[in-house]
Amino acid sequence: KVEQLVNLTGFERLWYEATKTAKSVGQIFVDATVEKLPRMDLQNVGSLSNFCVKSKIKTVDHYWDTKKCTRVDACFYGCSQLEYVKGINTSKATIVNDLFTNCSSLKTIEMPFDLSLATNVTNFVRNCTALEHIRFVAESIKCSISFGYSPILSAESIQSIIDGLATVETQQ
Question: Contact, 95 vs 119, CB < 8 A?
Answer without folding.
Answer: yes
